Amino acid sequence: MAPALRYPVRAVPLAFLGAIAVATAVLMLPASRAGEGHAPFLTALFTATSAVCVTGLNVTDTPEYWSTFGHVVITVATQIGGYGIMTLSMLLALLVSQRLRLRNRLLLQAESSGLSLGNVRLLLIRGALIILVCETLIALVLTGRLWGAYDYPPGRALWYGVFHAVQAFNNCGFAIFDNSLTGFVGDWWICLPITLGVIGGSIGFPVIFELQRQWRQPSRWSVQTRLTVGGSITLLVVGFVAMLAIEWTNVRTFGPLNVPTKVLAAFVQGAMPRSGGFNSVDYSLMHDETIAITIGLMFVGGGSASTAGGIKVTTFFLLAFVIWAEIRGEPDVVIGRRRIPTATQRQAITIALIGVAIAVMGTLLLLTFTRGLRFHWALFEVVSAFATAGLSSGVTGDLPAAGQVTLIVLMYVGRLGTILAASAIALNTRHRLYRYPEERPIVG
Amino acid sequence: MAPALRYPVRAVPLAFLGAIAVATAVLMLPASRAGEGHAPFLTALFTATSAVCVTGLNVTDTPEYWSTFGHVVITVATQIGGYGIMTLSMLLALLVSQRLRLRNRLLLQAESSGLSLGNVRLLLIRGALIILVCETLIALVLTGRLWGAYDYPPGRALWYGVFHAVQAFNNCGFAIFDNSLTGFVGDWWICLPITLGVIGGSIGFPVIFELQRQWRQPSRWSVQTRLTVGGSITLLVVGFVAMLAIEWTNVRTFGPLNVPTKVLAAFVQGAMPRSGGFNSVDYSLMHDETIAITIGLMFVGGGSASTAGGIKVTTFFLLAFVIWAEIRGEPDVVIGRRRIPTATQRQAITIALIGVAIAVMGTLLLLTFTRGLRFHWALFEVVSAFATAGLSSGVTGDLPAAGQVTLIVLMYVGRLGTILAASAIALNTRHRLYRYPEERPIVG
Ligand SMILES: [K+]
Ligand SMILES: [K+]
């Protein structure tokens, strides 16, 4: 790897470790806890990791266990983690792209990511402004609704509005309502802004910046933007339709709801795997098919350089295009009149298969540490942690210490691993002076 | 695709359909059934498909439900299916390789598969001889043991020896003992020949022929043989160690067994996912971690052009080498001083990801058709059918008709799909007169 890039690739995980350490220490102060004494180390570490890695899994009842000061700490940790991951992964991607462009400058590539490192400061400020505007809008709608329809006093309504707006846009998923959003399952003014915030945060700065510039000319969109927008819409539709089709008659979930509420609940629950961690219906009561689809959606996750996790929408749909080209016998993988380099295809495969391996290993570890845990809830919890989705069947708090440590490691690795692996792999290219002769084993 | 190859690629699935139809019809005769009347269509179709596709899943109690004539029908169907799949997939692979070599003859490739289509008849006879020798050896050991140690009359001992020898070497898994091999969990003379037969059948003719020629010179082995031998040993060790480590103290499985029996049982149960369908310990009583590992082993399966199923050992370990090269930043994927063509890498990825997609879709279908079935047993059953492994938690017979049809389709698609897809993909190459400019989206 180029020496100039080793530093950022190493600095990012250290910065996140530092933020987690500080948040853990502050959450261990007696002031952070609502009850007597202070939070135990593991509880504070889990909550801090979950907040900084914008996951939203929790081992405590968030509204009951932490004081208002604790909730402020969670908010700050979430905002730092979310802003950090969005900006740092964007900068890393730009560094990589700039570096590759310099190396290949004689090849006259038509790179059209549209962004450059020219003015890093401007990028950081633009990013912060976008976050501020989006979160303010969400907070205003929530505050107005809680004040107007639920008789919250104005100050409390504002605080609840701000707290959940930050959680939503950063794709974290802590809630200080009782039982996440289940009390508001039919309330469009609560569920819709939070869900739209989650979707907005899951797009990522490179695509947002490009859409700001040319959202009216889809024909000029980069591959990045095409895959992210098309892929996200596809996954939202899949989630929505699956929820409606499978849960419609489930008496423990959607069954008792009226039709408009069913539609809203399907939209919310179908979008949350993108990777917000809220729920307005209890996932643990859903059918196994819905859980299986939700696990798949969480694994794919959101856009690159966003607050969402998973292997990323671009990675997943790029692989779909690779397979499609292979089936049709096309020599090149072409997306919107642009050819995808073989190196990028191999990166996508590597990221996806490493993701599968981590999910499998994590599930085996969690099952080993937690006898009696059902297989699909272990898988659900592990993919939720790895993809920093934050959805849970409710077992997180009951896991033994080793199980909680497994999830902590998965959240950290899932948050930083795919981004850093992608950068490191893209930069780490050796050159050989000789090549071996070809041989073609039988596959399949 | 070349017109000369369209015919075999289409003829193979039709031949299997024909064999399944005939076996179904014969199994529906009253003479095939032990009890009154004749077997219902779906039961006969399931059993015929399971035998011809050398899976071994069953919806009936094989020793009780079918007459001796029925058992003979199952034996013949298994042998035709096993011989058919070994020879046809070898011939298809040779056709593909010859075709590619003709197309690329100016490239002076160092293809060293060591086989050619020169004398198809000789290949077919050699294959039949190998099967005959291996099955005779297994049958002799089993017969001697059943006669000597279990007081079976000689005729009955011989018939039981032949039946299970055919089932073992063809990687099918029907048993006419009560409850598969569970009555012989500590008997090395029964368990070992059957398990070695399963392993032998899972290697495949191309590798067996090459080993016959030069098993003493591993340095001259082809990539095919290196991947198959090294990969199979790796998977056998993984299965063995996982069984011992996880089940050692499980009071419902290995716990009550003495140490040598534990070792034998771990070897048998660890090797069966390769894809024999026997068991000497009940998989349904094992820990969830063991089941998860077994599902993974079944999904990978055995060697190409063998009686084993799955995505194949070569495909899986080829992908591991691709990822390893990617992580090290190597431009080429090199296995034993041979470079793997990009086209072959893409084929392996396509096969693996289509396999994942089929397993996921199958599991969703089975869960939809069978309310109350636990998620991981649905996955176990589906992967077992797709990989024609034949292991079961015992739920197969209780599935509703739609669930049984799902498994029938999975067995057929799993048996023929990967082989045909690999051939079709390898041959189906288009040429473009223009190429689009490159663009590099962010992945991960
Ligand atoms: K989240
Ligand atoms: K089998």
Automatic annotation (TrEMBL), chains A, B:
Record's keyword terms, sorted: Cell membrane, Ion transport, Membrane, Transmembrane, Transmembrane helix, Transport
Keyword Lipid biosynthesis: no
Pfam families the record matches: TrkH (PF02386)
InterPro entries: Cat_transpt
Residues annotated as transmembrane: 12-29, 41-60, 72-96, 123-147, 187-209, 229-248, 307-327, 348-369, 407-427
Protein name: TrkH family potassium uptake protein
Naturally occurring in which organism (per UniProt): Micromonospora sonneratiae
Mode of membrane association: Multi-pass membrane protein
Main subcellular location of this protein, as a coarse class: membrane
Record localization: Cell membrane
Domain of life: Bacteria
